[in-house]
Amino acid sequence: MKTFNEVIGIKNYRPPFWLRNGHIHTIFASKFLKTDLVPYFRERWDTPDGDFIDVDLLQDNNKKVLVIGHGLEGSSERPYVQTAARYFFERGWDVIAWNSRSCSGEMNLRPKLYSHGDTADLNFVVSRATEMDYEKIALVGFSMGGAIILNGLGRQGSKVKGPIVAAVAISAPCDIRAASQNLEKGFKKLYGKYFLDKLKEKVKLKAAQFPGFLDTHGIDSIKRWREFDERFSAPLNGLSGADSFYEFSSANERLDQIRIPTLIINALDDPILSDQDYPREGIKSNKYLQGYFPKFGGHVGFLQYPIDGPSHAEQAALQFISQFLD
Q1: 237 by DSSP, 3-state: which?
Q2: What's the start-to-end Cα distance of the chain, in Å?
Q3: Bond into 48 cis (ω within 30)
Q4: Do residues 163 and 252 touch, judged by C-beta distance below 8 A?
Q5: Residue 269 CB neighbours (<10 A)
Q6: Smallest Cα–Cα separation from 71: which of 176, 123, 142, 150?
Q7: How far is 236 from 111, CA to CA, in rounded Å?
Protein backbone atom coordinates (compact mmCIF):
# COMPACT_ATOMS: atom_id res chain seq x y z
CA MET A 1 0.00 0.00 0.00
CA LYS A 2 1.39 3.37 -0.98
CA THR A 3 0.80 6.03 1.63
CA PHE A 4 -0.01 9.64 0.87
CA ASN A 5 3.48 10.97 1.53
CA GLU A 6 4.94 8.39 -0.85
CA VAL A 7 2.46 9.27 -3.58
CA ILE A 8 2.98 13.02 -3.74
CA GLY A 9 6.24 13.45 -1.87
CA ILE A 10 5.10 15.33 1.24
CA LYS A 11 7.87 15.83 3.75
CA ASN A 12 7.74 13.81 6.95
CA TYR A 13 6.07 15.80 9.69
CA ARG A 14 8.17 16.81 12.68
CA PRO A 15 6.40 19.05 15.22
CA PRO A 16 8.23 21.25 17.72
CA PHE A 17 10.07 19.06 20.23
CA TRP A 18 7.76 20.08 23.08
CA LEU A 19 4.75 18.75 21.16
CA ARG A 20 6.16 15.29 20.54
CA ASN A 21 3.78 13.79 23.07
CA GLY A 22 0.24 12.98 21.99
CA HIS A 23 -1.40 14.14 25.22
CA ILE A 24 0.49 17.43 25.42
CA HIS A 25 -0.11 18.10 21.72
CA THR A 26 -3.83 17.36 21.99
CA ILE A 27 -4.40 19.41 25.13
CA PHE A 28 -2.39 22.40 23.91
CA ALA A 29 -4.18 22.45 20.55
CA SER A 30 -7.58 22.20 22.23
CA LYS A 31 -7.16 24.49 25.23
CA PHE A 32 -4.37 26.96 24.58
CA LEU A 33 -4.10 27.53 20.84
CA LYS A 34 -5.19 31.02 19.81
CA THR A 35 -5.80 32.26 16.29
CA ASP A 36 -7.13 35.44 14.70
CA LEU A 37 -10.86 35.29 14.13
CA VAL A 38 -11.99 34.56 10.59
CA PRO A 39 -14.46 37.12 9.15
CA TYR A 40 -17.28 34.65 8.62
CA PHE A 41 -20.79 35.71 7.84
CA ARG A 42 -23.52 33.43 9.11
CA GLU A 43 -26.59 32.07 7.40
CA ARG A 44 -29.31 29.85 8.80
CA TRP A 45 -30.40 27.12 6.43
CA ASP A 46 -33.75 25.42 7.00
CA THR A 47 -33.42 21.65 6.69
CA PRO A 48 -35.93 19.41 4.88
CA ASP A 49 -37.12 17.89 8.18
CA GLY A 50 -38.23 21.20 9.69
CA ASP A 51 -35.06 22.01 11.59
CA PHE A 52 -32.12 24.31 10.85
CA ILE A 53 -28.37 24.36 10.72
CA ASP A 54 -26.17 27.43 10.96
CA VAL A 55 -23.35 27.77 8.45
CA ASP A 56 -20.48 30.23 8.47
CA LEU A 57 -19.29 31.41 5.08
CA LEU A 58 -16.26 32.96 3.43
CA GLN A 59 -17.04 33.99 -0.14
CA ASP A 60 -15.16 35.82 -2.89
CA ASN A 61 -16.90 34.57 -6.04
CA ASN A 62 -14.57 31.59 -6.32
CA LYS A 63 -15.63 28.64 -8.45
CA LYS A 64 -14.56 26.06 -5.88
CA VAL A 65 -15.67 25.67 -2.29
CA LEU A 66 -14.40 23.84 0.77
CA VAL A 67 -16.99 22.33 3.12
CA ILE A 68 -15.60 21.93 6.66
CA GLY A 69 -17.04 19.74 9.43
CA HIS A 70 -16.02 20.16 13.07
CA GLY A 71 -15.47 17.66 15.88
CA LEU A 72 -17.62 16.37 18.73
CA GLU A 73 -19.13 19.28 20.68
CA GLY A 74 -17.08 21.67 18.55
CA SER A 75 -18.22 24.35 16.14
CA SER A 76 -17.04 26.50 13.26
CA GLU A 77 -15.43 28.76 15.88
CA ARG A 78 -12.85 26.18 16.90
CA PRO A 79 -9.27 27.26 16.02
CA TYR A 80 -8.67 24.22 13.81
CA VAL A 81 -11.71 25.10 11.68
CA GLN A 82 -10.77 28.76 11.47
CA THR A 83 -7.15 28.12 10.45
CA ALA A 84 -8.29 25.66 7.78
CA ALA A 85 -10.91 28.13 6.53
CA ARG A 86 -8.37 30.94 6.34
CA TYR A 87 -5.72 28.76 4.69
CA PHE A 88 -8.01 27.61 1.87
CA PHE A 89 -9.73 30.99 1.44
CA GLU A 90 -6.40 32.76 0.97
CA ARG A 91 -5.65 30.26 -1.81
CA GLY A 92 -8.73 30.82 -3.89
CA TRP A 93 -11.44 28.77 -2.19
CA ASP A 94 -14.78 29.85 -0.83
CA VAL A 95 -15.60 28.16 2.47
CA ILE A 96 -18.73 26.72 4.07
CA ALA A 97 -18.11 25.78 7.71
CA TRP A 98 -21.25 24.07 8.92
CA ASN A 99 -22.28 23.61 12.53
CA SER A 100 -23.88 20.36 13.59
CA ARG A 101 -27.33 20.73 15.09
CA SER A 102 -27.15 22.29 18.58
CA CYS A 103 -23.50 23.33 18.11
CA SER A 104 -23.93 26.90 16.84
CA GLY A 105 -25.00 28.41 20.16
CA GLU A 106 -28.71 27.68 19.82
CA MET A 107 -30.52 24.40 20.40
CA ASN A 108 -32.04 22.84 17.30
CA LEU A 109 -35.77 22.31 16.93
CA ARG A 110 -36.19 18.56 16.42
CA PRO A 111 -35.93 15.66 18.90
CA LYS A 112 -32.49 14.70 17.62
CA LEU A 113 -28.94 15.96 17.93
CA TYR A 114 -26.09 14.71 15.75
CA SER A 115 -23.65 11.82 15.58
CA HIS A 116 -20.67 10.46 13.70
CA GLY A 117 -23.05 8.46 11.54
CA ASP A 118 -25.77 11.01 10.79
CA THR A 119 -24.88 12.16 7.27
CA ALA A 120 -28.15 13.84 6.26
CA ASP A 121 -26.94 17.34 7.08
CA LEU A 122 -23.68 16.84 5.21
CA ASN A 123 -25.68 15.78 2.15
CA PHE A 124 -27.90 18.84 2.60
CA VAL A 125 -24.92 21.21 2.77
CA VAL A 126 -23.38 19.67 -0.35
CA SER A 127 -26.73 20.00 -2.12
CA ARG A 128 -26.94 23.68 -1.21
CA ALA A 129 -23.35 24.24 -2.35
CA THR A 130 -24.24 22.63 -5.68
CA GLU A 131 -27.23 24.96 -6.05
CA MET A 132 -24.85 27.89 -5.46
CA ASP A 133 -23.17 26.93 -8.77
CA TYR A 134 -19.79 25.91 -7.42
CA GLU A 135 -17.97 23.92 -10.05
CA LYS A 136 -15.86 21.97 -7.57
CA ILE A 137 -16.52 20.96 -3.98
CA ALA A 138 -13.99 19.51 -1.53
CA LEU A 139 -14.72 18.13 1.93
CA VAL A 140 -12.52 18.36 5.01
CA GLY A 141 -13.63 17.05 8.39
CA PHE A 142 -11.96 17.04 11.77
CA SER A 143 -12.52 14.16 14.21
CA MET A 144 -16.31 13.58 14.19
CA GLY A 145 -16.56 15.76 11.07
CA GLY A 146 -14.13 13.42 9.34
CA ALA A 147 -16.14 10.39 10.40
CA ILE A 148 -19.32 11.98 9.04
CA ILE A 149 -17.61 12.55 5.68
CA LEU A 150 -16.33 8.96 5.52
CA ASN A 151 -19.76 7.60 6.42
CA GLY A 152 -21.50 9.89 3.95
CA LEU A 153 -19.24 9.01 1.03
CA GLY A 154 -19.43 5.34 1.91
CA ARG A 155 -23.21 5.29 2.00
CA GLN A 156 -23.54 7.07 -1.34
CA GLY A 157 -20.81 5.10 -3.11
CA SER A 158 -20.85 5.81 -6.82
CA LYS A 159 -24.08 7.84 -6.46
CA VAL A 160 -22.39 10.81 -4.79
CA LYS A 161 -24.32 13.97 -5.61
CA GLY A 162 -22.66 17.25 -6.51
CA PRO A 163 -19.27 18.05 -8.03
CA ILE A 164 -17.23 16.63 -5.14
CA VAL A 165 -13.63 16.21 -6.27
CA ALA A 166 -11.93 14.93 -3.09
CA ALA A 167 -12.25 14.59 0.68
CA VAL A 168 -9.94 14.55 3.69
CA ALA A 169 -10.73 13.17 7.15
CA ILE A 170 -8.38 14.38 9.90
CA SER A 171 -8.15 12.61 13.29
CA ALA A 172 -11.27 10.67 12.35
CA PRO A 173 -12.52 7.80 14.54
CA CYS A 174 -13.50 4.98 12.20
CA ASP A 175 -14.75 2.50 14.82
CA ILE A 176 -16.98 4.25 17.35
CA ARG A 177 -17.35 1.24 19.64
CA ALA A 178 -13.56 0.86 19.91
CA ALA A 179 -13.02 4.61 20.25
CA SER A 180 -15.53 4.85 23.10
CA GLN A 181 -13.89 1.91 24.89
CA ASN A 182 -10.52 3.58 24.41
CA LEU A 183 -11.79 6.64 26.29
CA GLU A 184 -12.35 4.51 29.40
CA LYS A 185 -8.69 3.55 29.83
CA GLY A 186 -6.13 5.21 32.10
CA PHE A 187 -5.38 8.89 31.48
CA LYS A 188 -7.71 8.82 28.47
CA LYS A 189 -10.64 8.78 30.89
CA LEU A 190 -10.13 12.53 31.21
CA TYR A 191 -11.02 13.02 27.54
CA GLY A 192 -13.95 10.66 27.87
CA LYS A 193 -15.30 12.47 30.93
CA TYR A 194 -14.93 15.85 29.23
CA PHE A 195 -16.99 14.80 26.21
CA LEU A 196 -19.48 12.78 28.24
CA ASP A 197 -20.18 15.64 30.65
CA LYS A 198 -20.81 18.05 27.78
CA LEU A 199 -23.15 15.60 26.06
CA LYS A 200 -25.04 14.95 29.29
CA GLU A 201 -25.84 18.65 29.60
CA LYS A 202 -27.03 18.76 26.02
CA VAL A 203 -29.24 15.69 26.54
CA LYS A 204 -30.81 17.39 29.55
CA LEU A 205 -31.67 20.41 27.42
CA LYS A 206 -33.15 18.19 24.74
CA ALA A 207 -35.18 16.27 27.33
CA ALA A 208 -36.57 19.54 28.71
CA GLN A 209 -37.41 20.65 25.17
CA PHE A 210 -39.38 17.43 24.53
CA PRO A 211 -40.90 16.21 27.81
CA GLY A 212 -41.33 12.45 27.88
CA PHE A 213 -38.96 11.80 24.97
CA LEU A 214 -35.92 10.91 27.09
CA ASP A 215 -35.70 9.57 30.64
CA THR A 216 -32.74 11.40 32.17
CA HIS A 217 -33.10 9.84 35.61
CA GLY A 218 -29.62 9.01 36.90
CA ILE A 219 -27.85 10.56 33.91
CA ASP A 220 -25.25 12.28 36.09
CA SER A 221 -24.08 8.94 37.48
CA ILE A 222 -23.37 7.42 34.05
CA LYS A 223 -19.65 6.75 33.58
CA ARG A 224 -19.61 4.22 30.76
CA TRP A 225 -20.07 5.22 27.16
CA ARG A 226 -22.07 2.13 26.33
CA GLU A 227 -24.74 3.00 28.90
CA PHE A 228 -24.93 6.56 27.62
CA ASP A 229 -25.15 5.38 24.01
CA GLU A 230 -27.80 2.78 24.88
CA ARG A 231 -30.00 5.25 26.72
CA PHE A 232 -29.46 8.44 24.70
CA SER A 233 -27.28 8.27 21.57
CA ALA A 234 -29.35 5.48 20.05
CA PRO A 235 -32.84 7.01 20.52
CA LEU A 236 -31.60 10.45 19.45
CA ASN A 237 -30.61 8.82 16.17
CA GLY A 238 -33.77 6.72 15.84
CA LEU A 239 -31.91 3.49 16.63
CA SER A 240 -32.75 0.52 18.84
CA GLY A 241 -29.66 0.41 21.05
CA ALA A 242 -25.94 0.87 21.47
CA ASP A 243 -24.91 -1.89 19.07
CA SER A 244 -27.07 -0.43 16.30
CA PHE A 245 -25.62 2.99 17.06
CA TYR A 246 -22.04 1.72 16.78
CA GLU A 247 -22.72 0.08 13.43
CA PHE A 248 -24.50 3.20 12.20
CA SER A 249 -21.65 5.50 13.25
CA SER A 250 -18.55 3.47 12.34
CA ALA A 251 -17.06 4.36 8.96
CA ASN A 252 -15.06 1.11 8.85
CA GLU A 253 -18.36 -0.57 7.98
CA ARG A 254 -18.50 1.24 4.61
CA LEU A 255 -15.02 2.38 3.60
CA ASP A 256 -15.04 -0.15 0.77
CA GLN A 257 -17.91 1.74 -0.88
CA ILE A 258 -16.19 5.13 -1.14
CA ARG A 259 -15.78 6.25 -4.75
CA ILE A 260 -14.33 9.74 -4.28
CA PRO A 261 -10.58 10.28 -3.76
CA THR A 262 -10.30 10.38 0.02
CA LEU A 263 -7.39 10.81 2.41
CA ILE A 264 -7.42 9.78 6.08
CA ILE A 265 -4.87 11.62 8.23
CA ASN A 266 -4.58 10.06 11.71
CA ALA A 267 -1.55 10.57 13.94
CA LEU A 268 -0.11 7.45 15.53
CA ASP A 269 0.20 9.23 18.88
CA ASP A 270 -3.46 10.32 18.89
CA PRO A 271 -4.65 9.54 22.46
CA ILE A 272 -8.33 9.42 21.50
CA LEU A 273 -8.22 7.02 18.56
CA SER A 274 -8.09 3.23 18.90
CA ASP A 275 -6.09 0.71 16.88
CA GLN A 276 -9.18 0.18 14.70
CA ASP A 277 -9.08 3.82 13.62
CA TYR A 278 -6.10 3.22 11.32
CA PRO A 279 -7.91 1.21 8.60
CA ARG A 280 -4.89 -0.03 6.70
CA GLU A 281 -6.68 -3.02 5.17
CA GLY A 282 -9.64 -0.90 4.12
CA ILE A 283 -7.28 1.55 2.45
CA LYS A 284 -5.32 -1.21 0.79
CA SER A 285 -8.44 -2.73 -0.77
CA ASN A 286 -9.95 0.53 -2.11
CA LYS A 287 -8.08 2.49 -4.76
CA TYR A 288 -9.98 5.65 -3.85
CA LEU A 289 -8.58 5.69 -0.32
CA GLN A 290 -5.19 6.80 0.91
CA GLY A 291 -3.85 6.88 4.44
CA TYR A 292 -1.34 9.19 6.03
CA PHE A 293 -0.44 8.12 9.57
CA PRO A 294 2.47 10.27 10.82
CA LYS A 295 4.22 9.45 14.08
CA PHE A 296 3.18 12.72 15.73
CA GLY A 297 0.20 15.06 15.65
CA GLY A 298 -2.02 14.25 18.62
CA HIS A 299 -5.77 14.61 18.13
CA VAL A 300 -6.68 17.48 15.80
CA GLY A 301 -3.23 18.96 16.37
CA PHE A 302 -0.50 18.60 13.74
CA LEU A 303 0.85 21.97 14.88
CA GLN A 304 4.03 23.44 13.49
CA TYR A 305 5.74 26.81 13.44
CA PRO A 306 4.18 29.35 13.36
CA ILE A 307 1.92 27.75 15.97
CA ASP A 308 -1.10 29.90 15.08
CA GLY A 309 -0.67 29.25 11.34
CA PRO A 310 -1.96 26.39 9.20
CA SER A 311 -1.35 22.94 10.60
CA HIS A 312 0.56 20.25 8.78
CA ALA A 313 -2.70 18.35 8.26
CA GLU A 314 -4.34 21.35 6.61
CA GLN A 315 -1.40 21.79 4.28
CA ALA A 316 -1.46 18.09 3.44
CA ALA A 317 -5.22 18.31 2.82
CA LEU A 318 -4.81 21.10 0.27
CA GLN A 319 -1.96 19.28 -1.41
CA PHE A 320 -4.05 16.12 -1.69
CA ILE A 321 -7.19 17.88 -2.94
CA SER A 322 -5.24 19.93 -5.49
CA GLN A 323 -4.34 16.76 -7.40
CA PHE A 324 -7.96 16.34 -8.45
CA LEU A 325 -8.99 19.85 -9.45
CA ASP A 326 -8.31 19.25 -13.14
Answers
A1: coil
A2: 25
A3: no
A4: no
A5: 21
A6: 142
A7: 7
- The model's pLDDT over 174-186, given as tens digits with 9 standing for 90+, comes to 999 999 999 999 9
- Predicted confidence at residue 27, as pLDDT, reads 96
Mean pLDDT value across the chain = 94
Question: Residue 50: what are its φ and ψ, rounded to 5°?
Answer: 85, 20
Separation between Cα atoms, residue 273 and residue 182, nearest integer Å: 7
Containing H/E element for 7? helix 4-8
Is the Cβ–Cβ distance between 111 and 236 less than 8 Å?
yes
Beta strands in 7-113 (DSSP E): 41-46, 52-58, 64-69, 94-98
- Check: pTM over 0.90? Answer yes or no: yes
* E strand intervals along the chain: 41-46, 52-58, 64-69, 94-98, 136-142, 164-170, 262-265, 289-292
Residues in the chain: 326
Query: Among residues of the chain, what percentage have pLDDT more than 90?
Result: 91
CB atoms within 10 A of CB 100: 26
Question: What letter would DSSP give residue 231?
Answer: I
Non-local (6+) Cβ contacts of 173 within 8 A are 116, 143, 144, 147, 179, 272, 273, 274, 277
Q: Please, which residues have CB within 8 angstroms of residue 27's CB and are 6 or more apart in sequence? A: none
Can you list the alpha helix ranges (DSSP code H) found in 40-188? 79-89, 120-131, 144-156, 176-182
pLDDT in tens, 73-84: 999 999 999 999
Classify burial at 121, counting beta carbons within 10 Å of its beta carbon; exposed 0-12, middle 13-18, buried 19 or more: buried
